């Protein structure tokens, strides 16, 4: 097996927490009558046997609209054209993700995301558009793309682990911006509460 080839998004291994998330949704579905007890029992057994995220998506596909599914395992490009696109929750970030923001905003929340590889590349095309990245602690963001009359704000400086995940922003930004949002440090939050009291 080629170790340099990323595992296909749908074939990534599911965690126990992923299976429990689907089981909770199935419990809700049998409670409100969308599933019979027999259907619920069959699906629950299959959920706990499931090994991949792709397998888990099959159990809720007919119960919830696309935007409410517990996992997003499609590798579709993101396009914001005179509007906004947001990807958040439990989703798989492919090794290379094309992003286009034309007079619009793309927001990617990586706090619950699964990275297909340790090094992720966002190939951005932005014309008067914005990319907003919300990243958890320990994730390094590198903006290496070509910027013309554009801005890149990295948020507060961090002590990052040498072998930690990297999100690289490549491509071209013309009259655009990249903003990185990082979680607030706990001591800062408590300091603000202290000032109010």
UniProtKB/TrEMBL annotation:
Q: Which residues form the Cell wall-active antibiotics response LiaF-like C-terminal domain?
A: 95-153
Lineage top rank: taxon: Bacteria
Q: Ranges for the DUF1707 domain?
A: 12-63
Which residue stretches, if any, does this entry annotate as coiled coil? none
Annotated protein name in UniProt? DUF1707 domain-containing protein
Native organism: Actinocorallia aurantiaca
């Amino acid at each position: 097996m080629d170790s340099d080839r990323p595992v296909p998004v749908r074939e990534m291994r599911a965690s126990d927490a992923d299976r429990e998330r689907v089981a909770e949704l199935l419990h809700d579905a049998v409670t409100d009558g969308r599933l019979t007890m027999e259907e619920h029992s069959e699906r629950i057994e299959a959920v706990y046997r499931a090994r991949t995220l792709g397998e888990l998506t099959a159990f809720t596909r007919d119960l919830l609209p696309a935007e409410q599914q517990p996992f997003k395992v499609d590798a579709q490009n993101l396009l914001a054209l005179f509007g906004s696109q947001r990807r958040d929750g439990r989703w798989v970030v492919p090794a290379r993700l094309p992003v286009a923001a034309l007079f619009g905003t793309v927001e990617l929340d990586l706090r619950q995301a699964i990275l297909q590889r340790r090094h992720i590349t966002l190939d951005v095309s932005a014309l008067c558009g914005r990319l907003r990245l919300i990243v958890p602690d320990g994730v390094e963001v590198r903006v290496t793309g070509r910027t013309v009359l554009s801005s890149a704000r990295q948020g507060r400086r961090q002590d990052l682990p040498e072998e930690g995940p990297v999100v690289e922003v490549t491509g071209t930004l013309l009259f655009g911006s990249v903003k990185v949002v990082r979680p607030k440090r706990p001591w800062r939050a408590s300091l603000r509460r202290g000032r109010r009291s």
